[in-house]
Amino acid sequence: MFRAMRDRRQKVAKLAAAAARLSAPLPRTERLAESRKVLALLGVAGPRSVSALVALALISGLVPVVFLVATSLLLGDLPDAIAGGWDSGAGEETRTLLIVAGVCFTGQLVARAVQVALNDIVARRIDGAMRDRLLAASMLGADIATVEDDVSKSLLAEAGKLLQYTFTTPGWAAVALVWIVSRYVTLVAGVVVVSVAYAWWAGPLLLAAGLYNRVRMIAGLRRSAASDDDGQLQREAEYFGHTLGLQASVGKELRIFDLAGWIRGRFERPLLQLHTRRSEVRRTVGFPVPVRESFVLMAAAAVVLVLAARSAADGDLALSGFVFVLISGAAVLQGGFADTYDFVLSQGLRGLHSLEQFERHAAEAPRRELTRARVAVGARPSREIAFERVTFAYPGRDTPVLSELDLSIPAGRSLAIVGANGAGKTTLVKLLAGLYEPTGGRIAVDGVDLRELDRAEWQRRVAPIFQDFVHYELTAADNIGFGAVHRLGDERAIRRAAERAGVLDVLEGLGSGLETTLSSRYAGGVDLSGGQWQRVATARALAAIEADAGVLVLDEPTANLDVRSEVAFFERVLELTQGCTTIVISHRFSTVRRVDRIVVLDGGTVVEDGSHDELLAADGRYAEMFRLQARRFADDPGDGA
To answer: What is the mean pLDDT of residues 516-527?
Structure first.
């Protein structure tokens, strides 16, 4: 029995130690540094708004004490005023105190209304600046590694989520810190009143107990907030509870496969783990602390009140003085406890920490900086784009995707790139578009290293249609005009691109024509079919080409279309973009056979190069893949319908 008790005590001790390590409060120097960082955020909100908020907080901290003092004096003078009449000295003093108390009471009501507006203004401005910081960090450097690697995506998603919700944002943390200062003003003012009205030692005693209680309770809040910061469990719960459980796009399969119960279980499991973790933290280091420290504060208040009551009973303290001590002591008690703003600050710091964590990761990640252009892009390419012994491995990975690849792409001609999944086709396109830089070799445009060209100007020369092209929840005009954002207001160009892509009639038939929002989530908005979205993406690329883009990239844009629709799409696009340097990536050989030249990638290098007929005659890998697809379509002619 004793051994079991000892084992249990050891187990509890280990659990408490683990919980304490997990949720240990920050050292005092770090807490002060945090406070300074939060205060620095106030500069973003503008001096007028911040000055008004600080002034309102200070006044709001003093007014309750003034109201309590006026009320206490009023209670003490009221018997004399009643006995002597309103015209007596006591009556005049009572009227003055009534006015002061009324002004304080009314002022508190007005201050609350103004406080709501000022809080919202300051928090919104700061959080807007924080979102700008997050966006800037996600766009560090010239490549897209900052948002493509797994760690970056996880940190970015977490920071973005915490910057969306009230009470977990840095803006609300800053607002809360200002109002916490007002709580300290109330606490100190109450202490001064107690010391003046009763005894010099009573105020400092209450102040020490109140500050001790606040510090310990705030440490408990931070421990509790730290127990919420398990990003993996949070993401798992959000995925199963929101992405799968509430999204209409997956509703069909959930019902057909009867997955509702399984999804519910997977949603509840991380929530249960989070709840268990929080309960352990609060039970071992969170709950006992506020109770213990609150006892210290309550004991100090009891000592002061009991001694003050005895002095009043002995005649050493006037009734008004005892009321001072009683009511001001209540204000000290209130100021000695953590409240809503302390909770908001602890939660809001999570958003700031998450943002800073992503900023640090983005700053430390290997990346290529934007360099000053040495050569103007002009009308390039006019001769060719050449990959010269290009090697590339994604950041953090040792195995290269491309290995000493040599490839010449003549300007004004069409080229298809085929190969198995993982052969490096899309990676090649990312390098061409300047989204990454080769780790070996170079890409030359008319003999000039791509790194020497103006990056933004070169990217305006590239018009892509990706497999996962973006469905912007904006107007149809915006969805097309983004192909040449510097000409976004050119309505004629947008209509011309839509007409060439064969989607103008569809868009004009919508409720507001080209100004219709392409999303059913908005009032008056509509969603398009897959084929219609395909044409909108084509119109976007055509708008870019009309605005002097010279390189068209088609990266599996028709993966969700049937064979006949895909053939019609490519024939239409190739016809409309004659004279452009066109690069086609597709798994379907019925479409790539129509280009001028085809290369086969395998193992990150070119293994075959030639026209469709030449590659068939060579009877190599391309011929094998082509015949496999041709046999499939011959066996199942309906697939081409």
So the answer is: 88
